[in-house]
Amino acid sequence: MTVTKGFASDNNAGVHLRVMEAITAANKGHVLSYGDDEYTLRARKRFADVFGKETEVYFVYNGTAANVLGLRAAAESFNSIICSDAAHINVDECGAPEKFTGCKLLPVPTKDGKLTVAGIKAYMHGFGNQHHTQPRVISVTQATEYGTVYTLEEIHQIADYAHQNGMIVHMDGARLANAAASLQTGLRKLTGDPGVDVLSFGGTKNGLMFGETVVFFNRELARNFLFVRKQGMQLASKMRFIAAQFEALLTDELWLSNARHANKMAQILAAELGKIPGVKLTQQVEANAVFAVIPMEAIPRLQEMYYFYVWDEEKSEVRLMTSFDTSEEEVRGFARMVRETINCFVPSSPSE
Q: What pLDDT, on the 0 to 100 scale, is given for residue 345?
């Protein structure tokens, strides 16, 4: 099957040229291993400049590890973690958070992937009861799995509620850059300032070859993280190759330009699809994801040329992701094919 780049995932995109150049530049000679190298030190300084000097940052290989280890640092095995029912930790991590933290996940039903204090309250009981897990962490995803974005006020409200109840706020920021670009705000203002305690900050979906980070705003949680990361098999011996990528991403706001472009392509895609009879957008397009209902009979033919996922087969709802390297030509070409394909199955009514 011949497939173009498509809209399956921003994981499918390549590596940004500046990031690739950073990897190449780091590939010179011998340096100290396990993070005691100049590249990692420089990258940590970049993180301090962007997220705050009081933060601690740790490099890991992938997003599941960043989430699992960040949550492990925040909770004991008898605790529970409240999250959206659509959260990546609940749906797409093969039970890893529960296996490696020992914590029970408590999913809150949502229509747009966003938690609210009202939804969280349904699980705020059983404190002190030895027969029940003890709610400890509230995990929010920014941007959400539906491509929606929490406002600064919404994050503030959740964090304030969590802290008033002695709880910790974890943020899955695999697409944090896209959320920040959407809200036109800085990374720190969207995380540490409103009260996030521990952040999984993503790079792979925004132009990196591989690599994510765990950022602690609450440094007490990081007290034993060196050992947690090692036990979690995420201590990179050649850490310079992860760190160098993040240094490039955080230099001259490459993270922002990449995210802005991906978001812009999603907006254009949504606008073009919205003009097509038979297509219905199902979520607000606030980051780099477009969710739409497309006639079921049209999907297999479209997937012959453009790879994308069916999100909900019962509703015939698809998910379309754009990336830092998605072109406007590609977006408009896909929209034309959607229109043409639907017309093949649903001929337009003859004019009267």
A: 76
